[in-house]
Design brief:
Mean pLDDT: 81
Radius of gyration: 21 Å
Number of helices: 19
Structural class: mainly alpha
């Protein structure tokens, strides 16, 4: 009973801490994500507050939080709309890889790391955080914006690419051959493509399973189906976030509207816990030693992500403000970067872990802040385009 009491006290404190952070975010006009992350530093290793009994709950709830965030994104779009967007943004995925993986690889090389460690850092700087991006888009009411399909296409293309990248980097880090890693990557991609095709054809089944006049039934059915698919996807070496996103795509519009309404409070709760848990895994004592490298790498890769989003949103014919919103939304790195770093540390590349933790925390906080002020950041381009249009008009035909 004493253990139960400690758990309840720590859980209550944690929720009050999240509530205070969220209230502060609302007061200053920011997304709640960076404030939840800063709150997580208070309970991190080396922080002023030590919560032990609630830690297993934090880990489990954080996984659910990412799943619900990506489910909510999927519910905003039909499978036809998204399939069309994915086809349009295949070149954007290539640009994303070249612009954002290259700085990580070069940084590792300049630091004198081995090839496998450099390749791991390339993946860390390449992949955006689906969970943080989803939260920011929702908080800033941008889910219906013209540029948002471009952002989502980039996220899903990255997650699909991770299905190939993770087996490859996992084998290389432990000294295995490229051929073995490549075979695992091909198998993972085949599974991903199969799931996407299945989701595209599953709308009729999803409607029959989910539709019900009672909200409680809708909640239980959608949540159960999503967690089941996300778990199967994870067991096959694919991101659980991709599985949840595809469930959202497969739910028809009428059912999707009800699902969004009944899931919203649950999504907000678990998403808040995800951000708190994410930051709580930071070792505060290791930050000062790698802070200069993390800051420089963060500056470069923030710029390259903004350029990626600018290019991708341009393919949606978005205006400069929309392009800047897309670019800043993609800046945050998160869960996948930590997974890659974990693989590297387990293989003996300890140096990757310290730099990654500081870099990811920095980007996870800075990304939502940049997204909040994206319109202001785009002002010079807006003025330049207005001036250009004015000059053309004065010149006449």
């Amino acid at each position: 009973m004493k253990g139960d009491a400690t758990f309840l006290v720590e859980l209550g404190f944690m929720l009050i801490l999240l509530g205070a952070a969220g209230a502060l975010a609302l007061r200053i006009g920011l997304s709640t994500a960076p404030l939840f992350l800063l709150a997580g530093l208070l309970i991190a290793e080396g922080g002023p507050i030590n919560l032990t009994s609630v830690q297993p709950f934090l880990d489990a709830a954080a996984s659910v939080g990412v799943v619900l965030l990506l489910l909510a994104l999927g519910l905003e779009f039909s499978s036809e709309e998204f399939a069309s967007s994915m086809k349009r943004h295949a070149p954007s995925g290539v640009v994303d890889f070249v612009l954002n993986a290259t700085p990580g690889f070069v940084a590792g090389w300049l630091l004198g790391w081995e090839f496998a460690a450099c390749l791991a850092l390339a993946g860390i700087t390449w992949i955006s955080s689906s969970g943080i991006v989803a939260k920011v888009l929702g908080d800033l009411n941008r889910l219906g914006n013209r540029e948002t399909p471009a952002v989502l296409s980039i996220l899903v293309l990255e997650d699909i690419a991770m299905a190939a990248y993770l087996p490859l980097i996992g084998v290389l880090l432990v000294g295995g051959g490229v051929l073995a890693g490549a075979l695992g990557a091909v198998l993972a991609i085949a599974v991903v493509v199969g799931i996407i095709l299945l989701a595209h054809r599953a709308e009729a089944i999803a409607e029959r399973v989910i539709n019900h006049e009672d909200d409680e039934q809708v909640l239980l059915r959608v949540l159960g189906l999503t967690l089941l698919v996300a778990g199967v996807a994870e067991s096959l070496g694919i991101s659980s976030a991709v599985g949840a996103f595809l469930v959202g795509l497969a739910i028809p519009n009428t059912a999707a509207r009800r699902a969004r309404r009944v899931l919203e409070p649950l999504r907000d709760l678990f998403a808040a816990v995800f951000f708190l848990s994410f930051a709580s895994k930071t070792d505060l004592g290791g930050i000062p030693g790698v802070l200069p490298e993390a800051l420089l790498l963060g500056l470069v890769t923030a710029i390259t992500k903004i350029l990626t989003g600018w290019y991708a949103a341009g393919r949606q014919h978005a205006a400069p403000r929309g392009r800047m919103r897309a670019g800043t939304a993609l800046v945050a790195r998160g869960e996948f970067s930590i997974v890659i770093a974990g693989l590297a540390v387990d293989a003996g590349y300890i140096e990757v872990g310290g730099l990654t933790t500081t870099y990811v925390l920095l980007m996870a906080i800075v990304g939502p802040v940049l997204a909040r002020f994206a319109d202001s950041l785009a002002t010079p381009w807006v003025r330049w385009e207005a001036s250009k249009a004015s000059r053309v008009a004065r010149a006449g035909p």
